[in-house]
Amino acid sequence: MTIDDLRRILTDCAGEDESVDLQGDIIDVPFSELGYDSLALMETASRIKQEFGVELTDEQIADAGTPRALLGLVAGAA
Predict the structure, then answer these.
(1) What is the rounded CA–CA span in Å between residue 1 and residue 32?
(2) In whole angstroms, what separates CA 68 from the centre of its chain?
(3) Whole-number pLDDT of residue 71
(4) H/E run at residue 63
(5) How far is 17 from 74, CA to CA, in rounded Å?
(6) Which of 31, 35, 53, 63 has the most CB atoms around its CB within 10 Å?
(7) Alpha-carbon distance 36 to 52, whole Å?
(8) Taking every pair of C-alpha atoms in the chain, what is the biggest distance, in angstroms?
(9) Going by C-beta distance under 8 Å and a sequence separation of 6 or more, which residues neighbour residue 23?
(10) Which of 55, 60, 49, 71 has the alpha carbon at shortest distance from 3?
């Protein structure tokens, strides 16, 4: 899974805060600053499972505070 895949999934799952540029360098920006709450991240995890076959626990999702952390979890679980 790439950062572009994650951007697409985040946008599909929870929409996009107009004040946030998801096309910029978001790899280390906390999800809270990007406008994504725990519900949006749970939906993101569901989509990751559907599209990539990687199942992440609720705890893993809650602990992944940035796109880099979430991508690392997916890479480690694949």
Answers:
(1) 21
(2) 9
(3) 96
(4) helix 58-63
(5) 24
(6) 31
(7) 21
(8) 33
(9) 7
(10) 71
